[in-house]
Amino acid sequence: MASARRPKKAAKKGSRKAARKVEARKTAKREATRMAQGGSAKKRGGARKRGRVRHTKFVHNRVAVVFDWDNTLAPDTYDALVESFGLDAQRFRKERYEPLVADGWEEILARCFTIIKESQARDHFVTREYLEAVGRGQKVFPGVPELFEHLRRRAGEIIDDIEVEFYVVSSGFIDLMRGASCADQFDGMWGTEFAFGEHGGVEFVRQVVTHPEKVRYILALAKGLDVGGSNEPEDAYRRVPEEDVHVPVSQIVYVGDGGSDIPAFTFVEGEGGLAIGVFPPGTSPETWAGWSAMDEQREEERVENLAEADYREGSELVRSLTLALESICKRVALGRLGAHD
Ligand SMILES: [Mg+2]
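# magnesium ion complex -> structure
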């Protein structure tokens, strides 16, 4: 499974005990939400019996910030891996990766294939431990480690018991991301994952997150469904009762760096959430990876703001993220006021 959810959410499929736990958690969550809305289940039931119709929306007391990884929170994991081989990443891309893409290969599979070939040519040296070590050595962008607490604090200033969750949905290599110093800040991480052979080296692809598939993962985390490892994409499109939704997409902020994020930008913005675009530190907005498509882009594909991937307090990006999160929290606060019907 290409996910790295915290253990609290890792209910085992097929286990009755785990299923009962999940159900108990959902019941507790429903009750907590009802209480947050200013009443008990009994009260609401009574209102229905008297024929009153609820006129306000259901309120979820949770917001989420979902990040792409490559060139959004950290340098590209493919380039980092290639450079760890002692090779020039740009040259490797040009000579090994680009011809495959030109030949019609899916981009993420082409990346994996070139890494597997390189590992096989050198006695299967790219093992899980090797990938994690490269991940540990990879630096995230400035300010990333401090960002999570900052955003939690600012959201808490608007609603003191709001739950703020962080996720990664990326086409990058999950084994590298897991090694990063900030990995334990995320409530869930999804990315492309290798399978390892008996010699210990990368042998095949176990899970792949293509660019358009990011939408499926966002939808799944919004609904609280675990689709990691599943070969049934329709699972994410299963109807989930409003009160069982984990976090509505309208309460999600999505942060990504380029053209590969446009399906996610479009989806999140279309559902009432907010999308923020970033360009890598030291580059300029003019060279933004998503810019080439921007002129022809439809209104709903655009982002709220485009800022340099500088996560230090006071930067334009952190101000943008803070405003985005605050505006969603204020909408939740308004909903909670209106819940006393
Ligand atoms: Mg990216």
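# post-check
The beta strands are 62-67, 163-173, 188-196, 202-207, 252-256, 274-279, 305-308.
Residues 68, 70-72, 257-258, 260 surround magnesium ion (CB under 6 Å).
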